[in-house]
Write a structure and sequence with these properties.
Largest sheet: 5 strands, antiparallel
Number of helices: 1
Strand order of the largest sheet: 4-3-2-1-8
Radius of gyration: 22 Å
Shape: elongated
């Protein structure tokens, strides 16, 4: 998947598929996970962390158990390769959004950034490849380090549209960005919101990415108008969640949304009758909300 180990005794770092059939696990610097943690034709977010010799491997933000003995990684002059390593072995699959850091990332940092793009100027980011080209055989590093790459056995017609679950638009600037997608968790959401798939996740490319504005408490701004709202007694939670959705084959479906008022600055379990609470929505980050309670 990503390797700096291209020649005999180079002992560079490697993140690859497992070396035992059916090759549905992962290997990291000589350590390995169990098989059966990966399935074909599904996207997975993989993060490998070496924290002063302590190695951790995360799949979709969840730490995996590693077994075996790690190699002693050493500096070498081998190139960094994506989808290829020692002996010409190659990864038969799709790769998007490759990031190389010179500092150990925490599980929280990994989870909060795995569903959004970066700017390229983040602290300790050494190389960043978004694979956003539509032609050519060059792979641009979006950091100022200019670690640009050359794509081998690649022509302009080989580029395809990615279906990786990345939030767009208003999602990029939010907090606790999470997603549900085919191949990922079917329940996700810290800080006051849980989304559970019921029938939406049917195809590769189906996903919902979401995050919140990190506010707490209540406010009276941007309330709906009409009906009981015009009495002027309403207020809403200041925390707003933003969503982006991809439906690859436009076949619809539904998800379940649960608000956890004990989490995420929601001020504890609300009092009063359930009928006093309404569900509000709007498009974008400004303007009055609509009351969509059914």
């Amino acid at each position: 998947i990503v390797s700096k180990y291209q020649s005999s005794n180079a002992n560079g770092y490697t993140v690859r598929l497992s070396d035992s059939s059916p090759y549905t696990g992962l290997g990291f610097d000589g350590l390995s996970t169990a098989n059966s943690i990966l399935e074909a034709s599904k996207w997975y977010h993989i993060a490998a962390v070496n924290d002063n010799g302590t190695r951790r491997l995360y799949v979709n933000g969840v730490e995996q158990t590693l077994n075996g003995t790690a190699i002693t990684v050493q500096s070498n002059s081998n190139p960094i390769r994506i989808a290829s390593d020692f002996g010409g072995r190659y990864f038969n699959g799709r790769i998007d959004e490759v990031r190389i850091w010179r500092a150990a990332r925490t599980q929280t940092q990994i989870r909060d950034n795995m569903h959004r793009t970066l700017n390229g100027d983040e602290t300790n980011l050494t190389a960043y490849y978004r694979f956003d080209h539509i032609s050519g055989a060059a792979l641009d590093d979006l950091t100022s380090n200019d670690n640009d790459g050359t794509l081998k056995n690649m022509t302009g017609t080989d580029w395809v549209t990615s279906t990786v679950p990345l939030g767009s638009g208003d999602i990029q600037g939010q907090n606790d960005v999470r997603a549900i997608w085919t191949g990922g968790s079917t329940a996700a959401g810290p800080a006051g919101l849980i989304i559970t798939n019921t029938s939406f996740l049917q195809d590769t490319g189906d996903d919902i990415v979401f995050g919140h504005n990190n506010l707490t408490g209540t406010t009276t701004s941007d309330l709906p108008s009409g009906g009981a709202w015009d009495a002027g007694n309403g207020q809403r939670w200041a925390r707003v969640w933003y969503f982006s959705k991809s439906d690859a084959n436009s076949n619809g479906g539904s998800v379940g949304i649960t608000f956890d008022f004990s989490d995420g600055g929601m001020s504890g379990t609300p009092g009063g009758a359930a009928g006093n609470y309404r569900l509000l929505e709007r498009s974008g980050t400004s303007g009055a909300f609509n009351d969509i309670t059914v």
